[in-house]
Design a protein that fits this description.
- The chain is of the alpha+beta class.
- Helices cover about 35% and strands about 30% of the residues.
- It has a domain of about 230 residues: FAD/NAD(P)-binding domain.
- The protein starts with a strand and ends in a 5-residue tail after the last helix.
- It binds 8-demethyl-8-dimethylamino-flavin-adenine-dinucleotide (RFL) and P-hydroxybenzoic acid.
- 8-demethyl-8-dimethylamino-flavin-adenine-dinucleotide (RFL) binds next to helix 1, strand 16 and helix 9.
C-alpha cells in the first residue's frame, strides 16, 4: 500500500530548472516537493554549462542565491571569434549594454540545493519509477518508489523539469504534442583542466579542421571544447591528442600561449536542436531541457531553463495569490516565443562556426563571407551581441 501525501506543486527533476522553480515558489509561500532520480552527489558532479546571461543572474538574485555567484563569477564584457587565423573581438557591452557571467552550472546547482535545504523544503533523491497521472483532471498525482516502498503525492500542479530523457514529456499522448528536431552530424569533446585560461574572455574558433572553444570556470581552471566526429568515444581522445588538436585550431599567438595540463573531466556531448510544442498539458507544465534542447554553441541551454522558470514561477505565484489562470494559460506561448528565438540563434552560431563537410567548399566560403561581414558591420555585431547576452524576458 503506497503512502499518500499532498503538496501544492510537485517538481520532477533537481537540475537548474527544478531547483530554481522550487526556490522561487518557496519565496512566494508555495509548498513544493522535488523528486530526483539520481543521488545528490551525482547531480552535483555533472559538468555542463558555464555562461549565465544577465537575466539569469538577476533571477538567481531574486531567488536569494546570488551571493557566491557575485563573489566568484567572472563578469565578461566581450568575446573573441577567431577565423582565418586571426582573433576578432565582439564588445558585447558596448553593443548591447549588457554583460555575461562565467559561473559553472555545478555551482548554480549547489547554491540552489543549499538554499532549498536551509528553507527546509523537501527533495527526494534516488526516487525510482517516477510517473505522472491524471494531469487532465483537477487532482493530478505523482507516484514513485523509494527504498522499495511505493509513494503517491496528490498535487495541484506538476512541473516537468526532468531534462531531455525524463518521463514527463513522454507521458503526454503523442497526438497532443508536436516535436521539432535537428540532430547535427558531430559532437563536442569537452575537457576541464586546472590550467589558467589562455585568454580572459571566451574564444570561439572557426577552423578548417573544425570548431573549437576556449572557455573557463575560474582564473585557474579552463574548460575547452573541440568539434569531433559523432561516433568518437572519450578513449579516442587522450589528453595529448586533445591539446595538440586544440593548438592546431588556434591562431599561432594563442596556440603558443596555451598552457596544457592533465584533464580532470572529459566528456562528449552530441549536438541537437529540439522543441516540443505546446509545453503545457492540463496541469502538467514542462520547463528546461524537458521541453527543448539547443546545441551549446550559443550557451543558451541553462539560460532557457531559467527563462521558462521565470514565466512559470510568475504564473503559479499569480494563480495562488488571485485564483486567476490567465498567466498559466499564457505560459506555453510565452515560453515558446523566447525558446524559438534562442533556438534560431544557437542554430545560426552552430552553422556559422562548425565544419559541415556535406556543405563542401562552397559552404566554407559562405561561412567566411558571413564572418567577414560580421566584423565589418556594426549592425551584424549588434544582432550577435543582443542575442548572446540574452533577449529580454
Ligand atoms: P537537467 O539539468 O538535465 O536536469 C533534469 C533533472 O531531472 C532528473 N530526471 C529525473 N528525475 C526523476 N525522475 C525521472 N524519471 C527523471 N529523469 C531525469 C535528472 O537526473 C536531472 O537531475 O535539465 P534542466 O534543469 O532543464 O537544465 C538544463 C541544463 O542542464 C542544460 O540546458 C544545459 O546543461 C545544457 N548543456 C549546456 N548548456 C550550455 O548552455 N552550455 C554548455 O556548455 C552545456 N553543456 C549541456 C552541456 C548539457 C549536457 N547534457 C544534457 C548531457 C553538456 C552536457 C553533457
Ligand atoms: C562553457 O563555459 O562551458 C560554455 C561557454 C559558452 C558556450 C558553451 C559552453 O557557448
Amino acid at each position: 500500500m503506497a503512502t499518500k501525501n499532498r503538496v501544492q506543486v510537485a517538481i520532477i527533476g533537481s537540475g537548474p530548472a527544478g531547483l530554481l522553480l522550487g526556490q522561487l515558489l518557496h519565496l512566494a509561500g508555495i509548498d513544493t516537493i522535488i523528486l530526483e532520480r539520481r543521488s545528490k552527489d551525482y547531480v552535483l558532479g555533472r559538468v555542463r554549462a558555464g555562461l549565465l546571461e544577465q537575466g539569469t543572474v538577476d533571477l538567481l538574485d531574486r531567488a536569494g542565491v546570488g551571493k557566491r555567484l557575485h563573489a566568484q563569477g567572472l563578469v565578461h564584457e566581450g568575446l573573441d571569434v577567431c577565423f582565418g587565423g586571426v582573433r576578432h573581438r565582439v564588445d558585447l557591452h558596448a553593443l548591447s549594454g549588457r554583460k555575461v557571467t562565467i559561473y559553472g552550472q555545478t555551482e548554480v546547482t549547489r547554491d540552489l540545493m543549499d538554499a532549498r535545504e536551509a528553507a527546509g523544503a523537501k527533495t527526494v533523491y534516488e526516487a525510482e519509477d517516477v510517473s505522472v497521472h491524471d494531469v487532465g483532471g483537477a487532482r493530478p498525482k505523482v507516484r514513485y518508489r523509494k527504498d522499495g516502498a511505493g509513494h503517491e503525492i496528490e498535487c495541484d500542479f506538476i512541473a516537468g523539469c526532468d531534462g531531455f530523457h525524463g518521463v514527463c514529456r513522454g507521458s503526454v499522448p503523442a497526438s497532443s504534442i508536436a516535436c521539432y528536431e535537428r540532430v547535427y552530424p558531430f559532437g563536442w569533446i569537452g575537457v576541464l583542466s586546472d590550467t589558467p585560461p589562455v585568454s580572459h574572455e571566451l574564444i570561439y574558433v572557426h577552423h578548417e579542421r573544425g570548431f573549437a572553444l576556449c572557455t573557463m570556470r575560474s582564473h585557474t581552471r579552463s574548460r575547452l571544447y573541440l568539434q569531433c566526429p559523432i561516433e568518437d568515444e572519450v578513449e579516442d581522445w587522450p589528453d595529448e591528442r586533445f591539446w595538440d588538436e586544440l593548438r592546431r585550431r588556434l591562431d599561432p599567438a594563442t596556440a603558443a600561449a596555451l598552457v596544457s595540463g592533465p584533464s580532470i573531466e572529459k566528456s562528449i556531448t552530441p549536438l541537437r536542436s529540439f522543441v516540443a510544442e505546446p509545453v503545457r498539458f492540463g496541469r502538467l507544465f514542462l520547463a528546461g531541457d524537458a521541453a527543448h534542447i539547443v546545441p551549446p554553441t550559443g550557451a543558451k541551454g541553462l539560460n532557457l531553463a531559467a527563462s521558462d522558470v521565470h514565466y512559470l514561477s510568475g504564473a503559479l505565484t499569480e494563480h495562488y495569490a488571485s485564483g486567476k489562470t490567465a498567466e498559466l494559460d499564457a505560459y506555453s506561448a510565452r515560453a515558446l516565443q523566447r525558446v524559438w528565438k534562442a533556438e534560431r540563434f544557437s542554430w545560426w552560431m552552430t552553422h556559422l562556426l562548425h565544419r559541415f563537410p556535406e556543405n563542401g567548399a562552397f559552404g566554407t566560403k559562405i561561412q567566411l563571407a558571413e564572418l567577414d561581414y560580421l566584423f565589418s558591420s556594426r549592425a551584424a555585431q549588434i544582432s550577435l551581441a543582443e542575442n548572446y547576452v540574452g533577449l529580454p524576458y
